[in-house]
Design goal:
This protein is of the alpha/beta class. A hairpin with a 6-residue loop joins strand 5 and strand 6.
């Protein structure tokens, strides 16, 4: 009855401290469910399994889990369990048999790995029973192989090896020719290796540097490949529009050809008349040029006559006899406008 009365009690009469603690507890529960939602059985990442490997091979937590190339989960942890590596992973939506095999494979040339599963067996795989070493394989790391090769070559005393082979060649001097030739060849090979030891070490060191640089630029290579995929997808989407444009252009050319064919009888006289007009213009080109040259001064004088207001500036020549004009303004001969 007390619990019912507390529930029905108005909010203003409840203890604010208790309400605050209850609200914080509910928020903490929601946050915990959200954070661990990936491990929930119904909405999480699926069923958890464990597989034992002889070595991790560069596999990391968060790498993909694939079956026949399809992503079905992700790696949740990589840890050392005695003399072997325990890899835990989650899988969802696929069937795993009791003889399922697992392998760490290379995803990209830059060193990314993923866990590949091969479902086998007649009964479902027990999540509590790890996949043993006999059914797991690790990848071959090219970068580590080059590094080990460089270290091994650095530890070999090639000069002493060449001297030893030369001594053996001298000791077998009385042996058949093919034995002496073989030992001499080994001695020459050792001498060549000894003389080129610094260059070989430099090449291996450069190879290791290149692989390290490529590994550090993995994110940029992935972004470049993603951008290329986006470009190809956009071009694929625009393929229909480009195809439609080409089809429409072809139809337009067909329509224009038909139009020209249908109106050829009308266009031919018009083109002939236009040819005659151009011939007349070409024959009178000199007269047209002279007319244009004379029109310039005419329109300049007309502009001067009309440019002083709403009237014409005119001069009536001979209206006043030249004897009445000042001597300086009298024309020398004929009727000329006064100068001033």
């Amino acid at each position: 009855m007390k619990a019912m009365s507390w529930l029905t009690k108005p909010m203003s009469r409840r203890n604010p401290i208790a309400v605050a603690f209850a609200g914080l507890g509910i928020l903490a529960g929601i946050a915990a469910l959200t954070y661990f939602s990936g491990n929930l059985p119904f909405i999480g990442g699926g069923t958890s399994y464990t597989a034992y490997f002889a070595e991790a091979g560069g596999l990391q937590s968060g790498n993909e889990v694939r079956i026949a190339g399809v992503v079905v989960g992700h790696v949740t942890g990589v840890s050392l369990d005695g003399d072997k590596v325990a890899v835990t992973f989650q899988e969802k939506g696929a069937w795993l048999g009791n003889t399922t095999t697992a392998a760490i494979k290379i995803k990209t040339l830059l060193g990314d790995k993923y866990l590949a599963l091969d479902p086998q067996g007649t009964a479902p795989l027990n999540p509590a029973q790890p996949i043993p070493l006999s059914r797991t394989t690790s990848p071959y790391d090219v970068q580590q192989a080059f590094s080990d090769l460089g270290q091994q070559l650095g530890q070999i005393n090639t000069t002493q090896l060449a001297q030893s082979l030369q001594v053996l060649s001298a000791a077998f001097a009385s042996t058949p020719p093919y034995v002496r030739s073989a030992l001499s060849g080994l001695a020459n090979l050792s001498s060549s290796v000894a003389s080129e030891q610094a260059q070989v070490a430099s090449v291996l060191a450069g190879t290791r540097t290149v692989t390290g640089t490529l590994a550090s630029e993995d994110a940029r290579f992935q972004a470049l490949l993603k951008d290329g995929n986006l470009l190809l997808a956009e071009l694929q989407q625009r393929q229909a529009a480009i195809s439609s444009m080409l089809v429409t252009t072809q139809a337009l050319s067909v329509q224009l050809s038909g139009l020209v064919t249908d109106n050829q009888a009308k266009l031919h006289p018009a083109l002939e008349a236009l040819d005659q007009v151009t011939n007349v213009l070409e024959q009178n080109q000199a007269n047209l040029a002279q007319a244009v040259a004379l029109a310039g001064p005419y329109y300049r004088l007309l502009d001067n006559a009309l440019g002083n207001g709403r009237w014409f500036d005119t001069y009536l020549c001979g209206l006043i006899p030249s004897s009445y004009l000042p001597p300086a303004d009298r024309p020398a001969s004929g009727c000329e406008p006064p100068k001033g």
